[in-house]
Amino acid sequence: xxxxxxxxxxxxLITLIAGVLLGYVYEVTKEPIAAKTLETKMASYRKVFxxxxxxxxxxxxxxxxxxxxxxxxxxPAETVDECLKAVDASGNVLGYVMTVTTSEGYGGDITIxxxxxxxxxxxGIEILEIAETAGLGMKADTDEFKxxxxxxxxxxxxxxxxxxxxxxxxxxxxxxxITTNAVVNAVDAxxxxxxxxxx
Length: 199
Prior knowledge:
Elements: H1 2-48, E1 54-57, H2 63-73, E2 78-87, E3 93-105, E4 108-117, E5 122-129, H3 143-146, E6 158-160, E7 169-171, H4 177-197
């Protein structure tokens, strides 16, 4: 009986000590991780909207409205996580940069950043988070794939397996149709949201 009590006390102490240590590590690493995440996101915004001097809060962008717009447009699996105005040195609004997440990836959520000008031109996309299959879906994070979206003025993209012949068509990644579809839907959701902001 005493051995059992001793074992319970020992396990309890080990659990408490481990919990305190994990809490300490979390507190120590929380701020550097948040700073690195912000730095990565801002670097991606500069890539997708190079003409902008700064990025400011978009007053007309709010999560509830975004959810409603995406649901109405047929993108229930996509979320606009953040939307900022891209402005020039004089403060003129050039368009929007946004972060969009889709839950339709093969390996889980895929998060992208994208820049859309006032006339609806998609400057480009960057991948912020992706965990797809190496050698297949991970090819979505290559310039070769991302450049297919660059400087296109379309209201909606679609993917094709037979070779793209129009600006709105994106060649599907070989062996990674689910990933291609997820990225296309994330981009299309962002385009739908950007269009609503320009109305």
